[in-house]
Amino acid sequence: MLPYPQIDPVALAIGPLKIHWYGLMYLIGIGGAWWLASRRLNRFDPTWSKEKLSDMVFWMSMGVIVGGRLGYVLFYDLNAYLANPTLIFEVWKGGMSFHGGFIGVMLAALWFGKKNGKSFFQLMDFVAPMVPIGLGAGRIGNFINAELWGKATDVPWAMVFPTDPAQLARHPSQLYQFALEGVALFAILWLFSRKPRPTMAVSGMFALFYGIFRFIVEFVRVPDAQLGYLAWNWLTMGQVLCIPMIVGGLLLIWLAYHRAPAAPAAAV
């Protein structure tokens, strides 16, 4: 068993002002994605300015934050937030939904694309390889918060999390998700998008592999207490939300390579 590193969730406290690691992880994810996007901007559209890119990153970040929070409220704990709506604003305590953030990003891409002469999938193909940076950073934030831990286990790398009332040795599922959704997904999308691909192919690869990776980790991750298992004592809300991503990803990849012949999209 490995000892859990005792990390204060508050990175910096200045009087009553507290800066949490969880919030900093979002800044790292957004900043890393912006930096990488700026490096690849000329291959995407040489006519775009850095200011336009910054606008896109801003609106998509709003999609992540607003969509992620509202997604958690709607998908995971609606009754609690209806009983006390002010809890919605306490984002430093965690409670963000990837699937809600994903919907928020899609809506932002649809709106921003229309304003700037880009199709929805042109923007999504460009953005997809950068998303794992934020996903990986977010999982590190979950680990520091000692939340979203896994099931009890006797594997040598199990940890006892301070937030676990039972104090059992558990899978560090946050680190599994960091490795898969952050590192592995980034590598897959980065390598795949280095060559020109037909429109929708990169978006399809993102949806497919994120869905697969998240579906797998959910088998060893403890479901949210207020929901538990939805069916068969193993199906979680996370897995339910990943099924359409896997199916949609496969469909997008098939459509990308089986539509009427067209010039391939530039590498993004």
TrEMBL record:
Q: What does this protein do?
A: Catalyzes the transfer of the diacylglyceryl group from phosphatidylglycerol to the sulfhydryl group of the N-terminal cysteine of a prolipoprotein, the first step in the formation of mature lipoproteins.
Upper lineage ranks?
Bacteria, Pseudomonadati, Pseudomonadota, Gammaproteobacteria, Pseudomonadales
Does the keyword field hold Membrane? yes
Keywords, comma-separated and alphabetical:
Cell membrane, Membrane, Transferase, Transmembrane, Transmembrane helix
Q: For this chain's UniProt record, which GO biological process terms are given?
A: lipoprotein biosynthetic process
This protein's pathway: Protein modification; lipoprotein biosynthesis (diacylglyceryl transfer)
Q: Which Pfam families match?
A: LGT
Indicate the principal place this protein occupies in or around the cell.
Answer: membrane
Bilayer topology reads: Multi-pass membrane protein
UniProt enzyme class: transferase
Give the family this protein belongs to, as stated in its UniProt record. Answer: Belongs to the Lgt family.
A single Gene Ontology CC term: plasma membrane
The answer on whether this UniProt entry bears the keyword Membrane reads yes
- Molecular function terms, GO-annotated: phosphatidylglycerol-prolipoprotein diacylglyceryl transferase activity
What does the record give as EC number?
2.5.1.145
Q: Which residues form a coiled coil?
A: none
Q: Which NCBIfam families match?
A: lgt
The protein depicted here goes by the name: Phosphatidylglycerol--prolipoprotein diacylglyceryl transferase
Q: Which residues cross the membrane?
A: 20-37, 57-76, 96-113, 120-140, 175-192, 199-217, 237-257
The entry's a 1,2-diacyl-sn-glycero-3-phospho-(1'-sn-glycerol)-binding residues are R139
Matches recorded under PANTHER family: PHOSPHATIDYLGLYCEROL--PROLIPOPROTEIN DIACYLGLYCERYL TRANSFERASE, PROLIPOPROTEIN DIACYLGLYCERYL TRANSFERASE
Q: Where in the cell is it found?
A: Cell membrane
